């Protein structure tokens, strides 16, 4: 018989080995039930002998308490990002530059490896007595300063908390990698979210990168995050080349993509890129390109870094994926503003990681110009890799008997004659009692950045409107458990959840209410600026809001007009009165306005996929004395472009004379560099 301590050690090792086989090698040797039996035995053993519990036991992965705001972490070695290449020519230019930086005739090898599409992460393992123990995990942040997410990362099952590495001449191992979610796991959590009336994730990257920064490790544990390492910072102290380090990482049992290819020439690199592009749809994770790195560490050191990028590596980005499918029907959706949007139902097709069966056709002008018809074969692409878009109609393949898509003259929902306002391309239903408009307005009101009401999904909103229980946002606050249980499929427990969520939203600040009302031209940022002038609902009902709006720096005529139209309207005012009577929203407290700082006198519009939450970036700008605009307008000094920035924004910046800068450049400005 072994002692409890021996049995504990044995179980820990066995469980770790199974976890590794399951999550990293994708090759389990036991069934889930057998695994559970081992795990349960460990839990029971630790319950009986609490002294055996160590921080690295597999039972200690799930943090017990939410850990408040993320702590900043300044790392000793900066995390660089990569310069991009979009064509074979770009890759050849990179090769020439590298060769110029080395001695002529030097042997040069590259490693080509998949560029995983998730969030970057650094993990430090402390090394002692031949074992490495997970000590710290941090996000990239601005490269130098990241955020500590250790507790969250401890929930990632594929990541060993402790591992045998043998005797090493270093005290710490600093590994960099990507946190990702596998495609199949994304499908599972999205199905679950939809069942709960939550918005599904648009892609694996958002789900993964967002998961890492969540507040409650118990919530993080529910997201099937995985980590894949692509760089060992101490590599040059331990190995000769990057390829050696990658091999070592996999050998000791740390997770990595294990798909690197060593290339002896740039032609070999280009053919590896082609191979990756063909193979990647079969990978369990999303990739958006190939990273090419000089293999030899000495050569890497000679080449060094620019302010932003290492000179020894580049990221080749794949062109947006396209898929072919067929339009099966074209429906008309009526949005929050009454705009009619044609939406195509498509034969389901795999595209960039999700199954696509619908695509917005934007407006009828586009449908007519491109002559899109039901029955047409089309090519679709994801705009910014999120929203699928019809790029090409394959007219020459058109089957017989198709008919031009009719342009509606009446609202499909309420039958009101549609209008086209001035220069606008959109057709609109002018009836604001139109059930479709009401539903969309209610949904917008509940969104996270507005009143943040959970559990009020599309189908419940639809029931509420159909049963006439709710006809404007203020009616939500009159809902009771007794009323809700009369709806189909509504149990008492969910009903009280919904009511509790709605009631809790009364404590949101007035700027969020302003956002949720969907005032024309007033987004999140403008709503905050407006709330600085008019901080409460009470005040909004007594003063001339449009006049105050006109005094705000950066509010153009269209915005002021939007405010005037909204507050000048009797029906809107009636809703506002109802909200006031129900005590919805608390006064907005104006954040201290920085009157100095490196960004004083400069204005910014922030767009694209960023390494931090957009709101946090806005706050950082304001704290440094800058101002923030929702959109690029005349006078916007800078457009801060994250990854996947839209062409429209870039065009607007060009037209308005705004300089386009990266997120990193913004942080450098904030630091006064
Ligand atoms: S190497 C100095 N390798 O891409 C080397 N990065 O666009 C820096 N990424 O911030 C990174 N897969 O988060 C490297 N195989 C890979 C990668 C990879 C994904 C991410 C990483 C980086 C971003 C740069």
Task: Summarize the SSE layout with pairings.
Layout: H1 4-24, H2 32-48, E1 72-74, E2 84-85, H3 88-101, E3 110-116, E4 119-128, E5 131-139, E6 145-147, H4 150-153, E7 162-164, E8 172-181, H5 183-195, H6 204-212, H7 217-220, E9 225-232, H8 235-238, H9 242-251, E10 261-263, H10 266-279, E11 287-294, H11 297-303, E12 313-317, E13 322-334, E14 340-351, E15 354-360, H12 364-369, E16 377-383, E17 387-393, E18 419-420, E19 427-428, H13 435-446, H14 458-466, H15 481-484, H16 492-504, H17 510-517, H18 524-533, H19 537-540, H20 545-550, H21 557-567, H22 570-581, E20 603-607, H23 614-623, E21 627-629, E22 638-641, H24 647-656, E23 659-661, H25 663-670
Parallel strand pairs: 2-12, 20-21, 20-22, 22-23
Antiparallel strand pairs: 1-6, 3-10, 3-11, 4-5, 4-8, 5-7, 8-9, 11-12, 13-14, 13-16, 14-15, 16-17, 18-19
Helix pairs in contact: 1-2, 13-14, 13-17, 17-18
Outline the structure in words.
The protein has 673 residues and is α+β, with helices and mostly antiparallel strands. It is 36% helix and 20% strand. The chain contains 25 helices and 23 strands. The radius of gyration is 28 Å and the shape is globular. The chain starts with a helix and ends with a helix. It binds 2-(butylsulfanyl)adenosine (IVH). 2-(butylsulfanyl)adenosine binds at residues 80-82, 113, 115-116, 120, 178, 230-231, 291, 310, 313, 315.
């Amino acid at each position: 018989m072994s002692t409890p301590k021996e049995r504990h050690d044995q179980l820990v090792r066995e469980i770790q080995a199974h976890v590794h086989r399951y999550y990293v090698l994708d090759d389990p040797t036991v069934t889930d039930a057998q695994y559970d039996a081992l795990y349960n035995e460990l839990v029971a053993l630790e319950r009986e002998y609490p002294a055996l519990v160590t921080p690295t036991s597999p039972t200690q992965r799930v943090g017990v308490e939410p850990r408040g705001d993320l702590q900043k972490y300044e790392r000793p070695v900066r995390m660089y990002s990569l310069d991009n290449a979009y064509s074979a020519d770009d890759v050849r230019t990179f090769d020439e530059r590298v060769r110029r930086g080395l001695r002529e005739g030097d042997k040069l090898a590259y490693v080509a490896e998949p560029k995983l599409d998730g969030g970057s992460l650094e993990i430090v393992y402390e090394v002692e007595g031949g074992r490495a123990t997970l000590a710290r995990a941090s996000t990239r942040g601005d490269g130098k300063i990241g955020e500590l997410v250790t507790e969250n990362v401890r929930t990632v099952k594929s990541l060993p908390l402790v591992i045998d590495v043998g005797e090493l001449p270093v005290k710490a191992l600093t590994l960099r990698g990507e946190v990702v979610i596998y495609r199949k796991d994304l499908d599972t959590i999205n199905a679950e979210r939809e069942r709960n009336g939550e918005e599904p994730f648009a892609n694996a990257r958002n789900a993964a990168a967002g998961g890492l920064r969540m507040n409650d490790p118990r919530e993080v544990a529910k997201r099937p995050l995985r980590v894949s390492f692509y760089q060992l910072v101490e590599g040059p102290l331990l190995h000769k080349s990057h390829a050696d380090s990658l091999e070592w990482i996999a050998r000791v049992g740390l997770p990595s993509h294990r798909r690197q290819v060593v290339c002896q020439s740039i032609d070999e690199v280009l053919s590896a890129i082609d191979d990756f592009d063909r193979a990647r749809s079969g990978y369990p994770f999303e990739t958006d390109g190939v990273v090419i790195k000089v293999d030899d560490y000495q050569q890497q050191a000679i080449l060094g870094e620019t302010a932003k990028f290492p000179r020894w590596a580049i990221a080749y980005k794949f062109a947006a994926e396209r898929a072919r499918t067929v339009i099966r029907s074209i429906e008309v959706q009526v949005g929050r503003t009454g705009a009619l949007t044609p939406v195509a139902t498509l034969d389901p097709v795999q595209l960039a990681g999700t199954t696509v069966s619908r695509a917005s056709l934007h407006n009828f002008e586009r449908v007519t110009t491109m002559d899109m018809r039901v029955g047409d074969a089309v090519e679709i692409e994801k705009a910014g890799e999120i929203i699928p878009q019809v790029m090409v109609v394959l007219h020459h393949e058109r089957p017989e008997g198709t008919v031009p898509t009719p342009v509606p003259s009446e609202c499909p929902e309420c039958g009101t004659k549609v209008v086209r306002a001035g220069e606008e391309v959109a057709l609109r239903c002018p009836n604001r009692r139109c059930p479709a408009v009401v539903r969309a307005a209610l949904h917008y009101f509940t969104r996270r950045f507005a009143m943040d009401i959970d559990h009020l999904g599309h189908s419940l909103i639809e029931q509420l409107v159909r049963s006439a229980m709710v006809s404007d946002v203020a009616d939500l606050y009159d809902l009771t458990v007794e009323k809700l249980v009369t709806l189909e499929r509504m149990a008492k427990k969910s009903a009280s959840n919904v009511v509790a969520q709605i009631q809790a939203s009364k404590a949101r600040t007035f700027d969020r209410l302003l956002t949720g009302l969907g005032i024309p031209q007033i987004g999140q940022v403008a709503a905050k600026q407006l709330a600085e002038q008019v901080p409460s609902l009470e005040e909004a009902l007594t003063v001339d809001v449009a006049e105050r709006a006109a005094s705000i720096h950066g509010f153009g005529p269209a915005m002021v007009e939007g405010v005037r139209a909204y507050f000048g309207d009797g029906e809107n005012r009636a809703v506002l009165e109802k909200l006031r009577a129900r005590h919805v929203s608390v006064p907005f407290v104006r954040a201290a306005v920085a009157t100095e700082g490196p960004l004083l006198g400069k204005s910014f519009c922030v767009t694209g996929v960023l390494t931090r939450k957009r709101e946090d970036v806005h706050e950082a700008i304001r704290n440094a004395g800058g101002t923030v605009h929702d959109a690029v307008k005349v006078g916007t000094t800078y457009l801060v472009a994250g990854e996947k920035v839209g062409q429209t924004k870039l065009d607007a910046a060009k037209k308005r004379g705004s300089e386009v800068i990266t997120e990193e450049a913004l942080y450098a400005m904030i630091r006064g560099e």
